[in-house]
Specification:
alpha+beta, 24% strand
C-alpha cells in the first residue's frame, strides 16, 4: 500500500491538521496531528487511527504499523526537540 494512499484515507476520515506516513519494507510509521486527540489516552489515539485503516489491516494489506499521535501543541514541541 502506498504511503500517500494511507495519508488520504486518514485525512478523509479524521479531522487531522497533518499526517505523515513513511514506509520501510513492510513497516509503516504514521505521525498524525490533530485537535481530535484532545483528552484521549495513547490507546484511544491509536484506536482512532486504526479505525479507518481496519479493512486494510484485516485484509493483510497493512501490518507492522507504528502510530505517533499528537495534539498540535505537542507536535510543535516534538519537532523542536527532535529535529
Amino acid at each position: 500500500m502506498e504511503c500517500k494512499e494511507i495519508e488520504t484515507i486518514l485525512l478523509d476520515a479524521l479531522s487531522l491538521e497533518e499526517v505523515k506516513v513513511t514506509q520501510e519494507g513492510t513497516h509503516y510509521k504514521i505521525v498524525a496531528v490533530g485537535e481530535c486527540f484532545d483528552g484521549m489516552g495513547r490507546v484511544k489515539q491509536q484506536q482512532t487511527i486504526y479505525g479507518p485503516l481496519m479493512a486494510h489491516i484485516t485484509s493483510g494489506e497493512l501490518h507492522a504499523i507504528t502510530i505517533n499521535a499528537f495534539m498540535p501543541t505537542q507536535w510543535k514541541r516534538e519537532k523542536v526537540f527532535n529535529m
